[in-house]
Write a structure and sequence with these properties.
The protein has 235 residues and is mainly β. Helices cover 13% and strands 57% of the residues. The chain contains 2 helices and 11 strands; from the N terminus they run αββββββββββαβ. Strands 1, 2, 3, 4, 5, 6, 7, 8, 9, 10 and 11 form an 11-stranded antiparallel sheet that branches. The chain is elongated and about 70 Å long. The relative contact order is 0.19.
Length: 235
């Protein structure tokens, strides 16, 4: 009986020891989230898209996504244990490739006449987001983020067929995860952005020197901007 009891005690001790070893992880940067303010930098990638509405017989499409580059800074204010306010001024360098087709103007093989446009954009964005964080588990803390991002387009070309307005307001929603490392906090984040309102600028059409471009430009009714951003923050 004593031998069985001793065996049970030893087994329980070994099990508790193993469990404790599984749970014990060195907590990196244990007090970083208690600071009222902290700052960081960010680098990442973006993919810009444009949703166009056109009139028949013209067809417009952003036929491929070009990967762009993003760089910025971050200011994070602690509002509560699970809620933060973030401001992260960022520069987005990217481009959209547009294909424009006239279905009434066909070549000898029956293919519509096609124009293409590489729309290069450099956006200066100032996102203001709320960050909703889960409880920290060891050195991992997932979160959701939502907010708005006013943006200014710094690279308009007056002679392009399709031109966007210089300013746009984006709605943002995304997911991320705080990774606590020995010397800093790494935060990968995936964010989806959608522009509010029609951002097509038709004021430049009168200045176009090419009548063919004017015809295409006049056939576009509206344009809505979209963007996917993968960001790595370093705090």
């Amino acid at each position: 009986m004593k031998q069985r009891f001793l065996t049970v005690i030893i087994t329980l001790c070994i099990a508790m020891s193993c469990q404790a070893q599984k749970r014990y992880v060195i907590q990196h940067k244990p007090y970083i989230d208690l600071r009222p303010m902290h700052f960081g930098i960010s680098v990442g990638m973006n993919m810009q898209d444009l949703e166009l509405e056109n009139t028949n017989p013209f067809v417009y499409d952003a036929d491929r996504w070009n990967v762009g580059f993003s760089v910025g800074v971050l200011a994070d204010m602690r509002l509560s244990s699970n809620l933060n306010l973030r401001i992260s001024p960022t520069m987005h360098f990217g481009a959209k490739h547009l294909i424009l087709q006239n279905l009434q103007d066909l070549d000898s093989e029956g293919n519509p006449k096609t124009e293409t446009q590489d729309m290069k954009n450099t956006y200066l964005a100032v996102p203001v987001d709320l960050k909703f964080s889960a409880q920290r588990w060891n050195n991992i803390r997932p979160y959701m983020v939502a907010g708005v991002s006013p943006m200014v387009n710094l690279t308009n070309n007056q002679q392009e067929i399709v031109q966007l307005k210089r300013t746009v307001l984006m709605l943002e929603v995304g997911l991320g995860c705080d990774l606590y490392l020995p010397f800093f906090k790494l935060i990968p984040e995936l964010k989806f952005c959608y522009g509010l309102g029609n951002k097509l600028d038709k004021s430049h059409v009168a200045s176009l020197k090419d009548d063919q471009k004017k015809m295409y430009a006049n056939s576009v009714k509206s344009g809505h901007t979209k963007m996917i951003v993968l960001t790595f923050y370093f705090e």
